[in-house]
Amino acid sequence: MRIALFGAGLFAAVAGLALGAGQASAGVPIVQPDQGRIGMHLSHEETAMVASGPLPAVVSMFVPLNRMGAGLHPETRIYRDDNGGVHASLRQVLMEAAQHPDGSVVVFLNAPGTRGGRVLDVYQNWTR
């Protein structure tokens, strides 16, 4: 129950930050009930704003790194071990995407008991 409430709060916080960036750049909500998750696609500006703010640290206080997943871009510089484990903080994953001119992320909040026990998944995207 605590994770569900925190997850709802986390999603509201990300949505609030995205909306705070301006109406023209509000995050795009993504709902995937068949996969047991909801999420938001953040623009480059929103990604940079979230990466440089307090939200990654606050999230990491409540969601341990082993309960977060990262879909890294093929050109990532973040270390991934032989088992596919990502060795980076949430801020590092967000910041790497934000450092590219068109870098963005998709953040998903997973339903309890899905996605191998992960609570949060972050996917990087950029073309240049």
Automatic annotation (TrEMBL):
Superkingdom of the organism of origin: Bacteria
Keywords: Signal
Residues in the signal sequence: 1-26
This protein's record includes keyword Signal: yes
Identification of the protein by name: Uncharacterized protein
Natural source organism: Nocardia otitidiscaviarum
Record lineage: Bacteria, Bacillati, Actinomycetota, Actinomycetes, Mycobacteriales
